[in-house]
Write a structure and sequence with these properties.
Blueprint: E1 20-21, H1 22-44, H2 53-59, E2 64-68, E3 75-80, E4 83-89, H3 94-113, E5 117-118, H4 129-148, H5 151-158, H6 165-175, H7 179-189, E6 194-201, E7 210-214, E8 220-223, H8 228-235, E9 239-247, E10 250-261, E11 268-274
Parallel strand pairs: 1-5, 2-4
Antiparallel strand pairs: 3-4, 6-7, 6-11, 7-8, 9-10, 10-11
Helix pairs in contact: 1-3, 1-4, 2-3, 3-4, 6-7
The chain binds zinc ion.
Length: 277
């Protein structure tokens, strides 16, 4: 879900202002995103989703949104003298375009912050620039998630459903976001503890397994076929199973539900791991 950001367009400028911690920055972008959604709700007089990136962008003062084929890039933010332009990759699914647009709004919110981010600061307050870029991208994703799937509204919708893969599909459709974006957000705010794994097929010639990526923690786990994940991949149906995990140094068997999405080379499996079941 990474989105390219033009280096010339400013980021958080390291002026003489005091550095801000990641926690403070998360709080800032979240509150700004909530305020923007509040403004949209007031303007249109309707609280229900979807909250569209384009509508929010114009409220944030973005002058123009252009849809064009950007190849591998999700979106671009360009700063002109009289304001910002967002370019969005028109070859992507509209729901992915929606998140890309919201991510770029996140960059404009970071510009408002106008304080250097303190990431991995050493004793002389020098920061690792790669870590700062990664942190900024994460902050923009946090802003995008709050803009398109406001915690308060999503919680209300979640309360009406059992937690399952089909709930993620339904809510992704209602909020007009990708399955992956909905799965990550739902795993973060669900009252029932759960994790999400994104599985992809190994591309090495001799390996026929899958590798999984815990969306909230970058832990790689392998899964050899045949397995519930490979069955989900082949059948396109939701598959329920149990799998052993090590969570906070404790080994545990958890219920898991897996389903395949996408097609061809981009096909993947999402597993919802129920940590308490
Ligand atoms: Zn970005």
């Amino acid at each position: 879900m990474s989105t390219h950001f033009l280096p010339g367009s400013g980021a958080v400028s390291p002026g003489l202002s005091l550095p801000i911690s990641i926690e403070e920055a998360i709080d800032f972008v979240t509150k700004r995103a909530q305020a923007l959604v509040g403004e949209l709700v007031k303007k249109r007089g309707r609280e229900e989703p979807p909250f569209l990136g384009e509508e929010l962008a114009y409220l944030q003062g973005i002058k123009k949104i252009e849809k064009t084929d950007l190849g591998e890039i999700d979106a671009l933010l360009i700063r002109h003298q009289d304001g910002y332009i967002i370019k969005i990759n028109s070859s992507h699914h509209p729901f992915r375009q929606n998140f890309s647009c919201a991510h770029e709004i996140g960059h404009t919110i970071l510009h408002e912050l106008d304080r250097p981010l303190c990431v991995d600061c050493d004793e002389f307050r020098q920061t690792n620039s790669n870590a700062v870029i990664k942190a900024m991208e994460r902050l923009c994703d946090i802003a995008a998630a709050e803009l398109l799937m406001p915690e308060k509204t999503l919680k209300k919708y979640l309360a009406g459903f059992d937690l399952s893969i089909s709930t993620i599909e339904r809510l992704a459709h209602i909020f007009k976001v990708s399955i992956q974006a909905a799965a990550i957000r739902i795993s973060q705010i669900s009252t029932e503890p759960c994790s999400v794994i994104l599985w992809k097929q190994c591309q090495k010639p001799r390996s026929k397994g899958f590798f999984g990526y815990f969306m909230r923690k970058p832990i790689y786990i392998s899964d050899r076929i045949p397995s519930p994940v490979s069955r989900a991949f082949e059948s396109n149906m939701p598959i329920k199973s149990f799998k052993g995990f090590e969570i906070n140094d404790i080994k545990k068997r958890c219920q898991m539900e897996s389903k395949a999405f996408g097609q061809g080379k981009t096909k993947y499996v999402i597993s919802l791991v129920f940590l308490g079941r």
